[in-house]
Amino acid sequence: MTTYTKKQVNDLVAGTLDWDSVHKMLSMPKDAGRYALYMEVLQDAVTYDDKILLAVGPHLNIVESATDGEIIVKCNCGHDFGDYRENWKLGANIYVRDTAEKMDQVYPRLMSPDTTWQVYREYSCPSCGTMLDIEAPTPWYPVMHDFQPDLKTFFEWVELPAPAKI
Amino acid sequence: MTILQNNSPFGEKLGLLLRNGMSLDDHRNGILARSAESGHYNGIKDLEFKERDPIGYERIFSKVRAGLVNSREVAKKIAASPIVEQEGELCFTLYNVAGDCVATSTGIIIHVGTMGAAIKYMIQNNWEINPGINDGDMFTNNDCQTGNVHPCDIATIVPIFFEGYLQAWVGGVTHVIDTGAVGPGSMSNGQIQRFGDGLQITCRKTGVNDTPLRDWLHESQRNVRTVKYWILDEKTRIAGTHMIREMVQETIADEGVEAWEQFALEVIEDGRRGLVSRIKAMTIPGTIKTVAFVDVPYTHPDVNVPSPFAKIDTIMHAPCVITIKPNATWRLDFEGCSRWGWHTYNANPTAFTSGIWVMMTQSLVPTERINDGARYATEFRLPKGTWTNPDDRRTAHADAWHFLVSSWSSLWRALSRSYFGRGYLEEVNSGNSNPCNWLQGGGINQDGEIHAVNSFETAACGTGACAMKDGLNNAAAIWNPEGDMGDIEIWELAEPLLYLGRMQKTNSGGYGKYRGGNGFETLRMVWGSHDWTMFFMGNGYMNSDWGLMGGYPSATGYRFEAHNTGLIGEDGRIAAGKSIPLGEDLNPDDCEWEKHLGPDAEVKRDKQCITTEAIFENGDLYLNYLRGGPGFGDPLDRTHDNIQEDLNENYILPEYAQKIYGVQYTQDNEGVYTVDSAKTSARQAEMKEERKARSVPVREWMETERAKILDLDASPQVKQMFASSFGLSDPFLNEFKTFWDLPADWNLLESSLGIPMFGSDVTMDISEMPDCKPVIMTEE
Q1: Angle, nearest 10°, between helix axes B640-648 and B654-661?
Q2: What's chain A's Rg over C-alpha atoms?
C-alpha cells in the first residue's frame, strides 16, 4: 500500500509538491490514509474549532460544529452557510455577467460568450469576498446543487467513526 | 413482417458456431440473465481461474493486451492518413463470443463499446444464419443506428475461430478522412439527416477467406472522396485484426480452449470489480449534479442547410445526476436532456456510454484492464427522444463529438468534486476544453485530386486546471488520451493549406488559482488548390466548459477568415516584400492581421463558429483556433510568481491579468514583466471588497430572475432549449418550477415559440424497421 507523509499532503494542498511525488500519486494505487492526513492539513489551515469532515472547495468545508455538533458548510473565514444538506450557494452572494460590457472585464469581446446564450454567475462569500464557484449556464437555469454527500456511507468506506448528527 | 429464418439458403444452421451448441443469441441472453440476477458478470461470484492460477491468468491477459497494443502500433504505419498515422485515431479491441470486450489497445477506446454493439447487433439479428459467420470472414460497420459514434469511424470486425468453433471477435477501427457526406470532411455539418451523412454500412460482410469482396471495394471506394486514404485505412484495419487473430489462436493453442473460454468471461467480471474498487477508493458516496450546454447557431446566413426547418438557433442541454451508491457502483441519469435535432451533433446511447470510458481512463480507471466489466458496474439512463438517444431513424451524427465531449467534460468536473473532497487533488480536472475548431473542407487538392480535409490539430487543445497545478497548454483532447497536434510538414502534405503561423493561443485558458491550459492557433493560407471550400466547426456563442470551485471557464471560440487578401500574385504583398499576417492573433478585438492585407480584403471576424462550405481561393486565410481549458479556484489565490510567468510567457494579455488577478507590474526595456507583489496584494484586497459591493444575496437575485421567467424574457434559443427539455421530461419541468416557485400550471411549450418544430411530435424509431432488433444496453 502506498503511503505519504503529512508534509507531502501539505505540499500537495499548497501546490508545491515535487513532481516525482505527484507522479507517484497519479500512477500508484491510491493511499487509504490520504483522507485523514488531508483533514489534518486542512484543519491546521483554519482558525475555527469545528472539525472538518470534507472539503467542498479550497475555501469551503463541511464541518462538525464545535458548539452543537451540527453538520454545516463553512468558509475558511468562518462564514456559516448552514446545513450541509442544503445548497450553500443559496446563502452566498452572486454577481451575474449578463451583458457584453460585464463580459468585457473577463475576456476580449470575441473570446467571451454571447450573453443571450450564456451568462457567468459568480458566487462569493458574503463575509470575505472569496470566489467560491462560477457557473456558466443559460439564463433561467436553476442554481446547481453540485454535491450532496452520503456521509454515513462515506465514513463506513474510510473505516472511521462518523459524526453523531448525520 | 419478418424475413428472418432459422435456416439459411446457404446451409448455415443455428448452434454450430459454439462448442456448447447454443446459438450466439441464446448464449448472450444467458450471460445477460445471469448478470442481471447476480450482479456479477455471467453470475461469476468467484474469480476461480485468477485465484487458482494467477500466473496463468495474467499470462493470457498480458499476451492479449500486448498483442493488441503491438498490432495497433504496427498497423497504423500502413495508413497514409495523418489522422491515423499522426494522431493515432485507431483502436483494436478483442471481444468474447457474446460481443463483450475482453481487452483493448490504446487509442480511441470509445470503440470498446461501439464495435461490441455491432457484434451484438449481428448476434441479435441472426447474422449466424444469414449472411453466415465463417472463419476468414470480415464484416464492416459504421452505422450510427448500430452503435457507431459517427460515420467516419469505420470498423472491420473479424470472427476468430479455433478448431472449428468461434472463440472470439476482434474489431479494428480507424477514423477516415471522408465518408462521402454532403459536406467534405469526416465531421461535416452541411447535412441535417442520415441521408446526407455519408456512406453507412450496417455490419456488412465485406470479405470472405481473408479477402475483401470486389463488389464492396468498388462500391465503397467510389462513394468517398479520399480514395487512397480510404484504401490504406482499410488495409490498416485488416492487417491489425488479422495479426490479433493469429495472436489469439496461438494463445488458445498454448493455454488450452477451456482456459481461454473461462478467461474470456472471468476477465470481464474482474474489470467490473476493478471499477467498483476504484470508485470506493477515490470517490465519495452521494449525488453529484452537473450540466453541459453547447450552441447550435443555425440562423446565421453562413449556415446553408438543405431544409428550412433546420434554420433555427438551438442549445443542446445535458444535465446529469451521478449517484455513487453504498455498494460502490454508480448510476448516471441524464433526465432532462434536450431533444435530438436537425444537425449532425446527435449521438446514440452506445456512443455516449462507450465514449465515457475514454474520459474515465484518464482519471477514475487509469488501467490497461479496461473492458466491458466497467459497463456492467454502471447504470446509464439516457431518456428516449433526447439528443443522446434519438427516437427517429433520420438523425445525422457526423459531428456527434460537438456535444459528447462537452457533456463528458462536465462529468469529469463533477467527479473532481469527489476527488477533491477526500484529498486526491492530483486527480482533479476542472474539465477539458471543447476540442475544436474542426478545420474541414474539400475540392481539388495540390496534387490535382479530389480531396477532403479534417485537421486533427484538435488533438492538442488546452487541458483543464488541476487542484494543485495549471492545465497543460496545447496538449490533449478528451477523446484521445494520446494528445498530438501533428507535424506541420505532414499537414501541409495532406492539405493545400500553408502555415503562416502556429502559436499557443494567448488568453484562451480559464483563469484561476490554477489556470486552464491555453489552446493554440494556426493561420493557414490556401495554396495550390482548385475549386476549394472550407468551413468552421466549434463553439462560439457559448462555452461548454465551466471552471471549478472559483475558476473561470476558458475563452469561447471565434471565427477569422479572409478572402481576396492581396497576398499572392505578381502584385501581391508577398511578391512586393510587404508585411503579411504571421504568428498569432494576439487580441482578436484589435484586428491586427487586417493591417497586413490588401485594401480589397473581405474579412469575417465574428462568433459564428459553425459554418457550412464557403469558397476559398488560393491566398485566402483561415484561422484554426484550438480551445483552452477551464481554471480552478479563486484567481486571487494565484501566486504572484505564477502571474509573472503568465505575463512573460504570453499566456495572458496584460489587460486581463490586471482585471482578473489585480496584478501590478513594471516592464523593462526588453519587455520583461516584474510583478510588484505588495501593490498587487493591496489591489487584490480592494477587489475582494469590490466583489462584495457589486454582488447581491442569491435569494435576492432569484426574485429578479424569476420575474424574467414569468415574463418569458429570454432569447429564442434559450426558450427552445427549455421547452424541448420540458417536453421530454416532467421531472425536469417540475424541478424547474419548484426551484423558481412558479405557478402550478406554468409551462413553456415549443409550439408557442413560433419556430419550426419538425420531429417534436411524430417520429419513427429504428426499431420500427422491418426485421430489425436494435441493441439496447441502457435504461431509456
Answers
A1: 160
A2: 19
CB contact (8 A) between residue A148 and residue B656: no
Closest-CA distance, B177 to chain A, in angstroms, reads 29
Question: Could you tell me which of B234, B64, B58 has the C-alpha nearest to residue B142?
Answer: B234
* Alpha-carbon span B754 to B659, nearest angstrom: 41
Q: How many domains does chain A have?
A: 1
| Cell numbers placing B498 | 500553408
Rounded to the nearest angstrom, the gap between the alpha carbon of residue B352 and the centroid of all alpha carbons in its chain is: 9
Q: Which of residues 720-779 of B touch A (CB under 8 A)?
A: 721-722, 735-736, 739-740
Q: Which long-range contacts (CB under 8 A, 24 or more apart) does B669-672 make?
A: B672/B648
Contacts of A126 in chain B (CB under 8 A): 692, 695, 697
Domain range enclosing A10:
1-45
Test B315 with A138 for CB contact under 8 angstroms: yes
Q: Where are the domains of chain B?
A: 24-272, 429-638, 639-661+671-694
Helix (H) or strand (E) holding A97: strand A93-97
**Paired sense of beta strands B378-381 and B330-333, if any:** parallel
pLDDT (tens digit per residue) in B299-327:
999 999 999 999 999 999 999 999 999 99
Look up residue B514 and give its three cell numbers. 490554477
Instruction: State the DSSP code for B447.
Output: T
H helix runs in B125-256, sequence order: 214-222, 227-255
Q: Which residues from chain A sit within 8 angstroms of residue B735, using beta carbons? A: 142
State how far the alpha carbon of A15 is from the alpha carbons of A106, B428, B457, B470, B638, in Å: 25, 13, 31, 10, 10
Nearest partner of B99 among B279, B347, B350, B273, judged by Cα: B350
Whole-number average pLDDT of chain B? 95
Query: In order along chain A (166 residues), what is the average pLDDT of each group of 10 residues?
Result: 93 97 94 97 98 98 98 98 98 98 98 98 98 98 98 97 94
Establish whether the linkage from the previous residue to B642 is cis, with ω within 30° of 0: no
Residues 6+ apart with CB under 8 A from B521: B501, B502, B503, B504, B505, B584, B585, B623, B624, B625, B626
Does residue B444 belong to the interface with chain A, where contact is any CB pair within 8 Å? no
Secondary structure of residue B568 in the 3-state scheme: coil
CA distance B461 to B479: 11
**Contacts with B510 (C-beta within 8 Å, 6 or more apart), sequence order:** B430, B464, B465, B516, B545, B547, B551, B552, B553, B554, B555, B628, B629, B630, B631
Nearest to B509 by CA among B559, B466, B556: B556
User: CB-based contacts of B258: which residues, under 8 Å, 6+ apart?
Assistant: none
* pTM for the whole structure: 0.96
The C-alpha of B736 sits at a distance from chain A's nearest C-alpha, in angstroms, of 7
Q: Which three cell numbers stand for residue B450?
A: 479530389
Collapsed DSSP state (helix, strand, coil) of residue A136: coil
State which residue of chain B sits closest to A137, comparing Cα positions: B293
